[in-house]
């Protein structure tokens, strides 16, 4: 909890699914928060929880710390530097720190950082690990990069967002951490598909196998919350194969730039490309299981089992 | 805790590092346990905790349930069926259930199972997921296969061993689950090596990167307890590259038998072979990080950081 | 041509498709050849070309050099050591050299070699590189291993079989060369599938692309004679995916035994397994192209083009 | 041979190692050829063979067909469109066809093509398959793309350059063919390294193994002319690992653009990256053999054998 006497005045730009879940946690913790969303209706639930509605991003420039969750690099640039953006007010007011929690390119981030420096505003890159369900369960984390003193100022609020953040260095390094995280996630998903199909063809139900794996030292929140999809074949997208391919494109490009061979990630990249080529581009990347089963001559059916996703207990 | 009126009389054969840690948990829970080890000195700490010493495996044949933790398939066969083995007594006494927690071949297990059936003794295959430190921390798990009623009888005691066991079916299926688990573990280790080196070459310390990953949804007990090795380059073997190669040999043989392609596991198999070829066969398999760094033109040095291994809090 | 005065008396056991094409070449060169096949009808075309028919394998034991082309390890053992086999005569007659051109296991070959040694008969392992069309075109080759003096004696006749043989050493080393050859062949086939699909999706016909590649320094007889299948999608099996998988099983087992990592061969092994899993096990392994196209979202149609296979000109 | 009455007047820009070997072949065939090189000394040997020296690229604009062999995309743009380039003359004279035999990007080629169109000059993309030794042996080939009538006009001269060219379509398609060719070449080289090391660890000399493979249906000019390097470990660069990596960068980018998964090429890409990371970037890519041997725990020594490279017989 933040002491009343030094509580910062906060702002939030972009209250989509991720942003709303995150902002809600600040409100629950009693923070003074003003919110702006392009379509105001999506901000209303937060207003009902006590957020102050803002009519434009520019109105938020008087807040101490402004968080941003938007959909793309271009959206970030527009939200901060655009004609109606955060910095577009004529009065010279500016937040001390902007925390960008979106997944954007290092180039866009660096450009925004450089322009903000002219206003004396620090940018923290804070890409989020986890989807909206993870945030709601209080289990979100983030890598943070940028000026350390800005991090120290924002840390109490960042900590409220989930179960902890890690300061990883200056500049855009947090963007690379997010790419590494997603490369790792893709490899884990493919390997999980391989061993799950092997277990099943050996006579073990997917439910029993994944229960066992998730209890073991190898179990993670991720392998837990993917279990329902693997057992019951619900491939309703949380993150599509096409989006994962994009992260592998970027991650492997970063690896190439730094001259790091990635034999396993490279193979998984190709398997994701194959998944897209076989028509699963808009399905959840958990369809890697389907592709793997087809390659093993196995026709999957739902096990219609009651499988916990490990996210049901909300921490607050 | 087991109710006094129906508490089973237990036995334990093989009190090496793993066996001792596991048997200790049964004693702590108040079980009636007799123990036998080829070299009696290694059983003494358990005797001091209340275990009854046995002079031979055969003496344990009067116990209701006997657990076994030995080093190899041959050791299992000798311990159960050998001239001084568990079943070698002339009086026809026999345990109702034998629980084999060793890592042995499915063939050896099936042979023991078949011979035990003639005595009316059921065999549960119960390969353990986790090393001695994991057991000590109360975080061991196991897959169990064999007759379901034998499982029901042994379950209260199996549950005492760690944070849960999973019954996966008849016969030797638990052996396959263990192989799947270790294939997954090897892939995760290699992928972790790849992204850690990428993060480091991007300017992020291994400590910061792994802290961030371990907090995230991708963090597991495994990625946690490997962090000290990755950060401080302590490759004191917990599990050697050569042993991991053996598990990949067996796991990929099982995949071939069941006609399951394993593209990622197959590549990791070759990378482990390369690790052995480059002279790291007796090092911990975490040396995959070293190999990966060398392939990236990076010379690793210890970060001499204080990194938790996630196992310090002992559950009981 | 062999000088009349020192021409050896030759025998041939097994006149299937490969054996007939090879034996025919010896007859065309004027050799004194006796032939035996389990079903005599298949030997008749050779008899019409001048071969002497034998009523049993045992009848051939008086020949100087006997060639064998049979289907499996068991067939080889039966043909040589079986009750009606080559060495079953009671009179002690035995060939000086037996040349086994079959594809059999190193174990079977070593066993036959050891038993033959008791009769003073040398065994040459002579696994053939090429299919019947390649033999007919005079382009077959073989690796030879066994006692060098036996090789010197057989060499003039081995040379007649195609465009050259290579003595690679003692014992079963020729078997390993054949496995290496087939691993290489499988990798080349998969890579050819990858680049052909890339070329086609870039707007280049398979015919033009493969014509170009085959003219280039990368062109081989193999890439040439596979071109019609790739262009016109005729997957009539010359060598099935299942058979190629078997060679990869054996080749990778040899690599494991000798502790040689094979990253690329291992991936191709898995892709062949996937091909089998997707139902192409009985198709020619050129169906790797189909699998590759499907993974690229491409539906292949025959180009109905006139593509030379590079084998039309028969050398004699 | 070209009939005298309709023989075209030819020009050549860039007489480095490749260009000189190619131009020499036109001179040997009796063509009317003018040559220009930035440093005139390198053109002198051609002048001694009958070529007309030109003082600038611009002087060659009056020739019917001008061939170009330069080192990079920028060099091509300068040679054609630069201030002293081929098209820089004020008199409006222009060749009918320019044949670019360099390895340049599709983007640079398309830009040059578009600007040349304004002069009515056609551009043929004609990337060459083969190194200078291959050209000298008369075994060079090329893929050609661009306007078909320009190809028809240039074809007699293109044919003189080696053992045949293939017209693959409009635009820049020949550039893609070259990338496919080089991806295939890299995969073949890596696979050759794998099986050669396996053969050697099985007791077969590299010389015997490669002799056997090169005689077989798998043998190509490429596997032939790499044999001396593999046997005698002469890694004097003909094409460095770093350059091959660049071709894999481009080839895999093309594959990504066309959504073609390339599992085997992707792994080889990473192995080449590893080769660079281990310090072999400036060595010939045949050092893949060294890397493979090191991963197999094998220390290579030269076999000091007399190995033909298959290029000694010059075709004319």
* Tally of alpha and pi helices of chain A: 12
User: What is the rounded Rg of chain A?
Assistant: 21 Å
Strand order of the largest sheet of chain A: 3-2-1-4-5-6
The best one-word shape of chain A is globular
User: Which spans of chain A have pLDDT < 50 for at least 5 consecutive residues?
Assistant: none
Helix content of chain A: 40-55%
Beta fraction of the residues of chain A?
5-15%
Record field, number of beta strands of chain A: 9
Looking at how many chains there are and whether they match, the oligomeric state comes to homotetramer
Average of pLDDT of chain A: 94
Which structural class do the helices and strands of chain A define?
alpha/beta
User: What distance separates the N and C termini of chain A?
Assistant: 11 Å
Q: Biggest interface and its residues per chain?
A: A-B, 72 and 72 residues
What can be said about the biggest beta sheet of chain A?
6 strands, parallel
Order of helical and strand elements of chain A: EHEHEEHEHEEHEHEHHHHHH
Question: If you had to describe this structure to a student in words, what would you say it looks like?
Answer:
4 copies of one chain form a homotetramer. The mean pLDDT of chain A is 94. In chain A, helix 7 runs parallel beside helix 12 (288-295). The first copy, chain A, has 12 helices and 9 strands. In chain A, 47% of the residues lie in helices and 11% in strands. In chain A, strand 4 (65-68), helix 3 and strand 5 (97-100) form a beta-alpha-beta unit. Chain A has helices at 17-28, 44-48, 73-81, 106-117, 132-136, 148-160, 173-201, 206-215, 221-232, 241-257, 263-280, 288-295, and strands at residues 9-13, 32-36, 52-53, 65-68, 97-100, 122-125, 128-129, 141-145, 165-169. By secondary structure, chain A is of the alpha/beta class. In chain A, the strands form 2 sheets. In chain A, strands 3-2-1-4-5-6 form a 6-stranded parallel β-sheet, with helices on both faces. Chain A has a 3-stranded mixed β-sheet with strand order 7-8-9. Chains in contact: A-B, A-C, A-D, B-C, B-D, C-D. Chains A and B meet through strand 9, helix 7, helix 8, helix 9 and helix 10 of A and strand 9, helix 7, helix 8, helix 9 and helix 10 of B.
């Amino acid at each position: 909890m933040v002491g009343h006497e030094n509580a910062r005045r906060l702002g939030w730009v972009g209250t989509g699914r991720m942003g709303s879940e995150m902002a809600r946690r600040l409100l629950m913790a009693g923070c003074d928060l003003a919110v702006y969303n392009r379509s105001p209706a999506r901000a209303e639930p937060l207003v009902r929880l006590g957020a102050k509605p803002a009519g434009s991003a520019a109105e938020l420039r008087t807040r101490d710390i402004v968080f941003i969750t938007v959909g793309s690099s271009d959206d970030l640039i527009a939200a901060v530097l655009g004609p109606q953006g955060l910095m577009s007010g004529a009065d010279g007011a500016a937040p001390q720190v902007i925390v960008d929690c979106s997944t954007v390119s290092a180039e866009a981030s660096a450009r925004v950082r450089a322009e903000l420096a002219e206003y004396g505003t620090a940018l923290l890159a804070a890409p989020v690990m986890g989807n909206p369900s993870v945030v709601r369960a209080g289990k979100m984390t983030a890598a943070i990069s940028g000026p350390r003193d800005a991090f120290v100022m924002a840390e109490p609020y960042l900590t409220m967002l989930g179960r902890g953040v890690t300061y990883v260095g200056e500049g855009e390094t947090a963007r690379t951490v997010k790419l590494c995280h997603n490369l790792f996630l893709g490899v884990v998903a493919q390997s999980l598909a391989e061993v799950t199909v092997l277990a099943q063809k050996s006579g073990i139900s997917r439910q029993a196998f994944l229960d066992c794996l998730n209890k073991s030292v190898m179990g993670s929140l991720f392998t837990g919350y993917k279990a329902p999809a693997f057992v019951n074949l619900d491939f309703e997208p949380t993150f599509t194969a096409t989006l994962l391919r994009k992260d592998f494109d970027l991650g492997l490009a970063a690896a190439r730039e730094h001259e790091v061979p990635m034999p396993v990630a490279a193979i998984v990249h190709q398997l994701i490309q194959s998944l897209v080529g076989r028509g699963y581009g808009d399905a959840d990347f958990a369809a890697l299981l389907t592709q793997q089963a087809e390659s093993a001559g196995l026709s999957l059916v739902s096990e219609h089992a009651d499988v916990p996703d490990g996210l049901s207990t909300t921490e607050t």
